[in-house]
Write a structure and sequence with these properties.
alpha/beta; single chain; 8-stranded parallel beta sheet; two-stranded antiparallel ribbon; 190 residues
């Protein structure tokens, strides 16, 4: 397996019975008004990560339920940024967050975040099902912040022992430029 490229290693990757999607839509306060449209037009069988950090309590749960109905109808994976217990209670298929907060709940997909090689090692130890490596390109989420760039992204991604999903400034054009099998976006898909 070591001789295969990352793209070849993880194209069609199956984790816990799921083939990991190529496109991942992440929610944010700034794309909230467009999410119904974005989920309905995202090609069937991709994934949605519900973050909605701007909402709390019952309002967050209500919005999750609204968007889950649309995501489920389109065959998208529904992933919650939060703890495993909440994900199970709300009916999410997985969780998203820092590697140290993923827990190990049977039946839940676990997706970690990473920004450098040190964090990739933490994700490897956590044995996550996938990792979001970011920011690849300049992004509105962190204006003026440093980004990995294509070559640094590839170098760090090569250290991962699970599928890597490119995040940060991604859109269809940049995904083609990067030539990476899986990518995620907030603005670039909504």
């Amino acid at each position: 397996m070591a001789s295969l490229s990352i793209s070849a290693r993880y194209s069609g990757c199956v984790t816990q019975g799921h083939t990991l999607p190529k496109l991942w839509l992440l929610s944010d306060a700034r794309n909230d008004a467009k999410l119904e449209w974005a989920l309905a037009t995202l090609p069937k069988g991709n994934a949605f990560i519900f973050r909605h950090y701007h909402l709390e309590g019952d309002a967050r749960r209500a919005r999750f339920d609204e968007l889950k109905a649309i995501a489920s109808a389109a065959g998208h994976l529904m992933i919650l940024s939060g703890d495993a217990e909440t994900a199970v209670e709300w009916g999410a298929q997985g969780i998203y967050g820092p590697p140290g907060k993923l827990g190990k709940r049977p039946g839940l997909l676990r997706f970690a975040t990473a920004h450098d090689a040190r964090e990739i090692e933490l994700v490897n130890r956590a044995k996550a099902d996938g990792v979001f490596l970011s920011p690849v390109f300049p992004t509105r989420s962190h204006p003026g912040g440093a980004c990995l760039g294509a070559s640094n992204f590839r170098e760090i991604a090569a250290r991962a022992e699970m599928p890597v999903i490119a995040l940060g400034g991604m859109n269809a054009e940049r995904a083609n430029e990067l030539d990476w099998p899986r990518w995620a976006a907030i603005d670039g898909l909504s």
